[in-house]
Amino acid sequence: MTRRETIVFSAFAMSVFAIALMGMQQGIGRFETARNQAVEAVFSRLQDIERSLERDILLVQTSALRHFDGLARAVIDLRQTRNRLKRGTTDIVNEGEERLRRLYARYVGATERRIALVERIKARQALVSNSMGYLPTALENVLDTADDLPVVESLAQSTTRTLLMFASAGKLEHQNAATKNIAELEARAAGTRAAEPARVLALHGHNILAERTAQKVEIQRFFASESLSFLGDLLNAHLADYNAQHAQGQRIYQVFTAITAFLVIGLGYTLLSLRRAAHATRASRNQLLDAVESVPQAFALFDKDDRLLVWNEYLTEYFHDIRDDIRTGVTFETLVRHAAGRGQISDAEDNEEAWIRTRLARHTNPAGPFEIQCANGRCLEVRERRTREGGVVTTYTDITDSIRAARNLARREAELERAQELARWGSWAWEPETGSYTWSRQLYRIFGHEPDGFTPTLDAFLDAVHPSDRERVRSAIRGAHRKPGPRNDEFRIIRPDGTVCHIRSVHEVVTETADNPVLVTGVAHDVTDRKRVQEHLNRLFHAIEQSPSSVIITDAQGNIEYVNPKFVETTGYTPVDAIGQNPSLLKSGYTSDLIYQDLWETVSAGGTWRGELHNKKKDGSLFWEDATISPIKAPDGTVTHILAIKEDISVRKEYEERLLRQANFDELTELPNRVLALDRLSQALARAEREKRIVTVMIVNLDDIKKINHTLGHQAGDQLLIEVSRRLFTCVRDGDTVARIEGDQFLIILPDLSLAVFAEVVAQKILSICAKPVTLAGSEVTVSASIGLTVYPSDGADPHVLLRNAHAALNRAKEMGGNSYRFFTPKMNEGAVRRLAEENLLRHALERGELNLVFQPLVDARKNKIIGAEALLRWTNPELGPVSPEQFIPMAEKTGLIVPIGDWVLREACRTAKGWRDRTGIHVQMAVNVSFRQFKGGTLSETVAKVLEETGLDASTLELEITERILVEEAPETSANLKTLSDMGIRLSMDDFGTGYSSLSYLKRFPFDVIKVDRSFVRDVTEDPDDAMLTSAIIAMGRTLGLEIIAEGVETPEQLGFLRDRGCDFIQGYYLSRPLPADEFEALLIKSEENGGIRHSGR
Amino acid sequence: MPIRNARTSWAAHIRWPLIGVFALASALVSMSPGSANHSDTAHPPLDTEPLLPIPLDHGEDPNKAALGGKLFADKRLSADGTFSCTRCHDLKNGGMDGLSRAKFRDGKEGKRNVPTIFNNRFNVVQVWDGRFLNQEEDIDATITDPHTFANQWPQVVARLKGIPEYARPFERLYQKGVTKDAVLDAVAIYLRSLTTPNSRFDRWLRGEDDVLSDEEKKGYALFKSYGCASCHQGANVGGNLLQKFGVMGNYFDDQAGAVDTDLGRYGITGQPEDKFVFKVPGLRLVTRTPPYLHDGSVKTLEEVIQIMARYQLGRRIPASDAKLIIRFLESLVGEYEGRPL
Questions:
Q1: pTM, two decimal places
Q2: Alpha carbon distances (Å) from B305 to A361, A1014, B313
Q3: What is the percent of chain A with per-residue pLDDT over 90, rounded to a whole number?
Q4: A 72-111 residues with CB below 8 A of B?
């Protein structure tokens, strides 16, 4: 391979190599980008986890967290995700620089401190919720033992109340009140029976106070954690690192590109230069001779044998004493020896031979210039050089004057140098004419050079100037002479060691004529340190000016000296407004004076105060600030200023408050949400269990709200929900709960109903009130609702079961087409609907004349003679047909309708009896049933008296049938009523005897005349020996007490025979006659009178 | 729902699809967590109960879990081939050894009771004093613990590399084959896969009303109302927080030397607040894992309930109520690998 081929080949190989490297570099770059995305994902995940921790801790504060799985998961996640920053492909810690390791460790430390706080907060929450849960029981125990101690009772109650308020809202006033209550409770209960329960209540109370208070501090510390900002620092450091690496990669890439380009160009150049080489050898010699005479110095050319060849006039002038020797062919040695021998050379005076030897040696091997001192005082500078032909050229320059000047200058320079050193000023001079450029030693120092190792040139100087300043400096120097007078300038230089210095320079132009500069001189001063301080101050000032936090600086007395723009933006006070004022300018009156006191005490004592202030802006609006206030101290420790850094946290505060509310209330309607509703339901169930009451739960669902959303928009839907929630409130009483548990579902808890049936009234009310039109978005809309009802305890004892049942009932109501309600169990459900329909109809039955009376004969079996009639109420409705009394009478009793109906029955029966009597002359006893409700209010006897008077019926003809229930209730008015009625001559009969409490004492205490044996005994009297025995006993007992006994429900001759055998003569039943309308009864009465008895229907 | 201001029909037709899009968008927006807008919940939302059901699927990589499971039972992980994880954590015995205190290789006793290995994934930190932040740290420490495995990682890795039944699956599942990190990962995944889902109680929480007896339901109600559920909550009925043992009194002082005083987490952190603080144990398998407390000093659930009532709750629980609570605890026992424990 020839040399040429070698070059070509290696250049080619290098190109290929370089291109391959470029490709690799790009691949690495792409991998780096993907990796960096993964790293950034880890960072964003970490941020998310910490945010979720913060959210959950806020929830802990509201006691809305039922379990800690979410928090535990977040902690595990945080640690796991954090570890990814030092493992696998997302490892930035082990791969990165020391700084990253330090920042990572700092972040880990902060998160671990945060996690430790989370753990404490959790543990305390568990203790608080335990004690909270125990409070009701503890209170009950105190109340149980403090019957005769009303003060203790009320203290225990207020202790519990203040504790609950403190635990839910965390307010200081509640804490103080609770502390006070507890202390007083313990003191008052001491020595009484309630002492021990009070101690337990106090123990749990103290526990709640202590744990909550400590927890509050921990929560504050948790939120003050810097972990997120440390995470940000870590991310920034990583990105800087990444960018730097990336930049380095770019640089390597560029170098490779350059190498490649160089190699390709070099290849071509090499080929070209190989061809040119041959032509480059011819040179000219004569030019030298032409130049000789024009040189302003002594000149001599010696050939290779050291014989003089060429010289000029100056040589003979300088060496005048040996001018005769100067001729062609004389050797250099001869000339030197003659010159020295004639005493022409001062240097040679001491040791002539040595000087000559040195001079000859120098001549043979020329090096740098040297000086010769001549006897005539002249000083010559000698320069020698070998020629190509092996000869030597020697020049002599007269430097006598310049040396003298230089010596003076040197002395002055030394002095100047010293001065500069002291002043740290360096100086320079530039002669445009000669290009000479000189530096003082101090300037070398400033530029970071050793005087020996560096030749100052203007270009070298400009190279040292920072690239950004270079052009400016260059044109300033070059253009200097155009503007006479000193000029100031500042620029940066880069020293060889890479440090950047700030230079302040003053230069001046010395001119001979107007625009002919002979000298530019200048001084330069290293102002880096001053500059650094200045820049540092500037940076700090800008940082404060542009800080996202409000900054206030006051003097030690608290007079504002400075406020930053953020302060102006936040508060609306301009610096003019604020400076000279006291920060109390922002006082809103909502921050406790204790807090200000604490603030001043802390700061005066030299400490840093941190806290939250509720302040007022210039326009009067309130806002929350998180303030850090600390004294600024002089080196001797005295406080000169006070610094306040404040952040507007109104948004966070609002967020916290909203979260607190959100945890328990629905934002739109401001009703309790599902969480709170379930809580209330649990409480209602607990109370109902103690008081043996029922709780009705209903879920109200708006039919077709989706259509409203679709047609009129969500805003209209929201408006509807608000309107409905407002209407629902009008349907319930105080103490009932209306909650919004889902989008269009409301939960209503009725904890205070004695009967489930009343819930239907509420449900009915809700349906009708929901059906009223609403104006939404300009359209009048009517909606309907569906309701699912369920009842504790019959349908379930657990809130969730009840809710589920209510949902099931709701679904059924919806299946039925909406606009209706359903009870949970199908049976109850159907019954309830029918009952309600009937009840509505019953209301109108009286006025529409749908009620009528039928009369069943009472027969004296022995005489076979009708002695009386029992008036029985019948209801025939056009829609329902005949309705059984067993169905509608209890309903009438429940709703109170029985009172007007009962009055009507009484009047109608008396009227009928009077009619019979008047028309037939036969005495027929008229028995009328009286409901317990008619006894309430104590006006029954008055009503009866009024009716008798109206109808003209003889009191002794009327018999009132009373059930045992009236007697069991033992209302004071009952006894008086019965007595009055009896005194009026009205007969009283005890109805349904044997079914209820059947206490003999009633029969003795109240003035009864008749016992009616219940039909249930009579029915089985011939089959069931027990019933037979009981019936016999009742009859025997009644007879002993001198009461008349009537057996009801006699349907067979066997029953009749049995009763008659036992001495019961008065019979009522289908065997004798079914109940008859008044006219038929009258006909039967007449017929039986004529026939001397009635015909048994059974025959 | 009659709307009186009716639009002309063509306008309505054009608008419907748009409205549909808006409705969908707003539905998506409103489905943020916390708002709990489920439209078809005939069932109570679980998050209002303090206890949660254990997810039916643990979600771990089955291949790595299987590999880890093999290591869990393998004595070759210990230096002299005599010790395996199952020696103390017997899955057939509720995931522990049934002894009061851990038994070391030399026959000596440790100072604490071996906790069950089941459901460890729900624990915020591992072991009684939370010394290990995760399963990997636990395994790492155990392998090199002179009392038990007494091994060194280079030896463990070298040994496993020499066993084809390990070397091959590790090569398949892990980029770098058998390494310390890979071994830790496999065993940790196996540990996290040990859950006991589908207990009767969980099924009840998920809506099957008949699976719990009235007594068990009553027991659960008592468990909540006495305050047990303040600490013992979540899927593992505990395990997710640390708590001081002896909130209402110093347990150890009262025992007057009958049991060794154990300062708990204080031994790790040295923080005064951490004295007597322990991880609240999960109660999922509590009826299967006597004896009780950190030192296994209590033999029966009846006794331990009384201790908890006295020292944690500051109240008394009548024996009849404690019995009902135990009934409830029994319903917490779930299944492992589809079989009841």
A1: 0.45
A2: 114, 56, 10
A3: 16
A4: 72, 75-76, 79-80, 87
